[in-house]
């Protein structure tokens, strides 16, 4: 074997979660930090979700939002829909990335960031909680970096997986879901490669009473949908220190449009359901092309250089509705016009970081970098060809510097600065009839912001680790929502305060204990913004409110491994969110369920009974929560899931039972984020997923 081949194999093996146990997450290098940081070295809370945990969750669900919600108590309970609007991390929107490529579209968020890749393509997920400037625009609530699978040593490694899901109350063609995925990867000489395909067909969802769950014909739905994904990656070692890689991901999720929504009645306790029928318009879909090229040099004059260039084309089509926002008497009588909106984003950018870690007798590590983002977004009314959100051109240039210094072995200090230069370029346009067809003068609003972060990690006595940090996050408001909502004549965008950026300040303190067989972590955090962005549902449209906001909370996680075959975990999150409703400077109102998660407790037990049999059990408690609007008070619920895996002479068989106790419940979103009778949705009842996988 050549040196380069051996180097590639060792690099791939060392970075694989199968090599580093999930219980030793602190040993993993976390790419999302941009400084090759690890969990124990971080002054913020970092959660690395390994391949084993993802495999366990995939026995229960194929929804990436649900996987994150099952594992992160500070993440909102999943909506179980195509749209994830209202799914927040620590009460704020996280920046979602795939292999460092941003999936979030801050200029015109659609809430579908979690549905740009199939879960079977995921190797691990890195989560940095709290405001973070290391990855630039959008990370006011943290970073969720999805790492795709990589090639493994061996010329040809193949994997085949098939699975079927059905409600346990009945077995019917309409409610059956099935999924298959295939991948081939390998490495030889200087080249490594991976090619993967997946296809999923979902049927009608049923609640615990075996009633059809309401379909969201407008926002889009996971039930009654088809999705496919293609991932291709090719890497080449130029020599022992230099590697380049090209990756391509093509994802499409589309509703089948076999059902129409039947409006419920919240006051009477009547749920929104579904009936056979053909909705108006074209089926909602998510359509994403992502291309990325990376270059790594592990010895550039004693430094490490990482460079990423990417391009993404994103289209989200929403379903037809006769929303008041879409009406125009020049086209059709009021109340009769059905239209559907389409959001389109075309973005490309680069990320470069150069790290040297041997200054001052290896006590100082420095990382310098420069990021660029060029984003072109718009939203139109697809059926009638009208402009809903004008074309927005966004430029973001961001140099940064990050330092880590260890004055003594037990102390690590970190600090950094990032400069954000942001410019919007928007042509003059006219709003729709619903907003009085006012003319808005375009402009090129420009913003610049210097962001700071500092932290300390101190180990006064093994195995106790204390940490504290301060970090600032930067993003722009939902520019599209702001622009389409203007109804005042004479607005000039160069002077419009609604476009001012959001800067979030996050402070946190806590401690960790890593002493086998125990691990424990607890932290308190506070996140504040003088000019935040709160989302509010008014009639049938989401409206952005620019107000002072503050969120504070506690997080605790614990694990116990009595031996190598058993692991018990417990994680708890409590948070409180408030905002200034009357602009007098005081935080006088509570954030609702569209903006903040309830208190949650998650417990799990995984066990390997022998070389063939493994089991997994988890329970999720979403605790009751009261809001200023009594209609949005959350009653809480508890869900239990279980899975069993059995290794056959050829392949592995798995059975997952989601909502094991068949709990009847209303989703958190339907209770506390929206009082819309069209979205009074029950959660899914008990389902069984039978799967078979084979590696060959």
Unreliable segments (pLDDT under 50, ≥5 consecutive)?
Answer: 1-26
Helix- and strand-based class?
mainly beta
Give the helix level as a range of percent. under 10%
The largest sheet, given as strand count, sense and whether it forms a barrel, is: 22 strands, antiparallel, barrel
Q: Strand portion, in percent?
A: over 45%
Separation of the first and last Cα atoms = 22 Å
Radius of gyration: 25 Å
Gross morphology: globular
Total count of helical runs of at least 4 residues: 5
Number of strands: 34
**Mean pLDDT across all residues, rounded?**
91
Give a written overview of the molecule.
The protein is mostly beta strands and 696 residues long. The protein is built from five helices and 34 strands. The protein has a 22-stranded antiparallel barrel. Strands 1-4-5-2-3 form a five-stranded mixed beta sheet. It is globular and about 75 Å long. Mean pLDDT is 91; it is low at 1-26.
Give the SSE map.
Layout: H1 3-14, E1 46-49, H2 51-58, H3 64-71, E2 95-98, E3 101-102, E4 122-129, E5 142-148, E6 157-167, E7 177-188, E8 191-202, E9 225-237, E10 242-255, E11 259-262, E12 273-276, E13 285-300, E14 303-317, E15 341-359, E16 364-381, E17 386-405, E18 411-426, E19 429-430, E20 439-440, E21 446-461, E22 464-475, H4 479-484, E23 502-515, E24 518-529, E25 534-538, E26 541-545, E27 549-563, E28 566-579, E29 589-590, E30 600-608, E31 613-622, E32 637-647, E33 652-658, H5 668-672, E34 687-695
Parallel strand pairs: 2-5
Antiparallel strand pairs: 1-4, 2-3, 4-5, 6-7, 6-34, 7-8, 8-9, 9-10, 10-13, 11-12, 13-14, 14-15, 15-16, 16-17, 17-18, 18-21, 19-20, 21-22, 22-23, 23-24, 24-27, 25-26, 27-28, 28-29, 28-30, 30-31, 31-32, 32-33, 33-34
């Amino acid at each position: 074997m050549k040196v380069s081949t051996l180097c590639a194999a060792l690099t791939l093996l060392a970075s694989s979660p199968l090599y580093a146990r999930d219980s030793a997450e602190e040993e993993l290098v976390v790419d999302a930090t941009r400084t090759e940081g690890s969990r124990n070295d971080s002054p913020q809370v970092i959660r690395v979700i390994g391949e084993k945990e993802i495999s366990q969750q995939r026995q229960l669900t194929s929804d990436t939002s649900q996987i994150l919600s099952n594992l992160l108590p500070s993440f909102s309970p999943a909506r179980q829909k195509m749209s994830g609007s209202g799914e927040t991390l620590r009460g704020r929107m996280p920046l979602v990335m795939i292999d460092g490529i941003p999936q979030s579209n801050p200029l015109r968020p659609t809430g579908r960031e979690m549905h740009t890749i199939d879960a079977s393509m995921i190797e691990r997920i890195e989560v940095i909680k709290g405001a973070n400037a290391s990855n630039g625009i959008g990370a006011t609530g943290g970073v969720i970096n999805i790492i795709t699978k990589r090639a493994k040593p061996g010329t040809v490694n193949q994997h085949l997986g098939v699975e079927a899901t059905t409600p346990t109350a009945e077995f019917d063609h309409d409610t059956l879901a099935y999924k298959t995925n295939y991948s081939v990867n390998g490495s030889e000489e200087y080249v490594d490669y991976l090619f993967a395909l997946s296809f999923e067909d979902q049927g009608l969802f049923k609640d615990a009473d075996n009633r059809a769950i309401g379909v969201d014909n407008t926002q889009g739905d996971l039930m009654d949908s088809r999705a496919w994904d293609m991932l291709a990656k090719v890497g080449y070692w130029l020599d022992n220190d230099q590697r380049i890689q090209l990756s391509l991901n093509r994802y499409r999720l589309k509703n089948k449009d076999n059902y129409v929504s039947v409006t419920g009645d919240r006051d009477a306790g009547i749920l929104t359901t579904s009936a056979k029928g053909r909705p108006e318009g074209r089926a909602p879909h998510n359509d994403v092309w992502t291309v990325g090229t990376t270059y790594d040099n592990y010895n550039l004059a004693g430094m490490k250089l990482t460079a990423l260039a990417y391009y993404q084309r994103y289209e989200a089509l929403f379903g037809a509705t006769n929303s008041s926002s879409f009406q125009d008497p020049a086209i059709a009588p009021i109340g009769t016009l059905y239209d559907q909106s389409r959001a389109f984003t075309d973005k490309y950018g680069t990320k470069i970081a150069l790290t040297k870690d041997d200054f001052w007798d290896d006590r100082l590590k420095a990382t310098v970098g420069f990021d660029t983002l060029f984003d072109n977004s718009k939203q139109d009314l697809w059926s009638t060809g009208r402009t809903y959100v004008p074309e927005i051109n966004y430029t973001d240039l961001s140099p940064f510097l990050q330092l880590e210094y260890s004055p003594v072995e037990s102390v690590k200090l970190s600090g950094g600065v990032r400069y954000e230069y942001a410019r919007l370029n928007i042509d003059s346009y006219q709003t729709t009839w619903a907003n009085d067809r006012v003319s808005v003068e375009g402009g090129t609003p420009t913003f610049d912001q210097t962001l700071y972060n500092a932290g300390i990690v101190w180990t006064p006595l093994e195995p106790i680790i204390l940490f504290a940090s301060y970090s600032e996050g930067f993003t722009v408001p939902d520019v599209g929502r702001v622009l389409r909502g203007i109804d005042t004549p004479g607005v000039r965008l160069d002077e419009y305060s609604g476009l001012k950026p959001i800067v979030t300040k996050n402070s946190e303190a806590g401690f960790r204990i890593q002493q086998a067989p125990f691990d424990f972590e607890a932290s308190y955090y506070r996140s504040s913004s003088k000019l935040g962005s709160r989302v509010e549902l008014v009639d049938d449209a989401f409206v952005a409110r620019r107000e002072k906001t503050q969120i504070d909370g506690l997080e605790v996680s614990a694990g116990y491994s009595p031996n190598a075959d058993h692991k018990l975990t417990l994680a708890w999150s409590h948070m409180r969110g408030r905002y200034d409703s009357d602009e007098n400077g005081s935080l006088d109102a509570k954030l609702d369920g569209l903006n903040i998660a309830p208190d949650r407790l998650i417990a799990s037990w995984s066990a390997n009974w022998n070389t063939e049999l493994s089991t997994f059990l988890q329970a999720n408690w979403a605790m009751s929560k009261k809001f200023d609007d009594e209609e949005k008070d959350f009653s809480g619920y508890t869900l239990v899931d279980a899975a069993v895996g059995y290794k056959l002479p050829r392949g592995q068989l798995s059975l997952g039972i989601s909502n094991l106790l068949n709990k009847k419940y209303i989703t958190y979103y339907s209770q506390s984020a929206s009082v819309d009778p069209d979205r009074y949705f029950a959660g899914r009842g008990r389902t069984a997923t039978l799967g078979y996988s084979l590696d060959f």
